[in-house]
Amino acid sequence: MMHEIYGWVGKFIVYGIWIASILVMISLFFGYVALRRKIVLNSFFAGVLDFFYMPLKTLYARFGNIRELDKIMVKLKNEANKKQYEKTKKRILLAPHCMRSLTCPASSTREGIQCISCGKCPFSEIKKTAEELGIKMYILTGSSAVRYIIKNGDFDGVLLLACNYELNKVMRYLSPHKTTSYSVPLVKDGCFNTETDLKLLDDAMKMGLTDK
Question: Domains of the chain (ranges plus CATH)?
Fold first, then answer.
């Protein structure tokens, strides 16, 4: 009797691993396709990759480029969230401090860098556009600021600006919360003097809020 039970448990585990592996491979395949053209079931494939993120991260770190995994997951989540994000009206923008000038005169608080629109970096124009659209901009110095803002903020949409690794991490963190996230990746990442496509960011800020 016990041998039969162990046999069934063993088969269940083997079949489970087999099915999970197939789902992951299919999700990765469609994730790569999504980088080039639109696909359906973005949310499902993103969910599968989220569930298996840690083992996938280990495999990519050993045999591939982990940036590709994060890039794929961010793309899938953006496509899955886009329609709902367009419906949001109370938004915030979470941006990385690495885009600011090395001689930035702004002070820092628990909510991040307090931009004074000095004109030394792109944040002056980004802040201006955000304020015109009613979007509160936060220039973050760490993940603790993200948790504080999410916990204490009043919004239904979050626009994220960062490298794909940070975007994926924050989007995964936001997933259980009652808010919709959308992301714009940096085109040049690093620890300082990073850059983004300002046109893409401008379009993302205006998405669903204007006709432009």
Answer: 1-86 (no CATH), 88-212 (3.40.50)
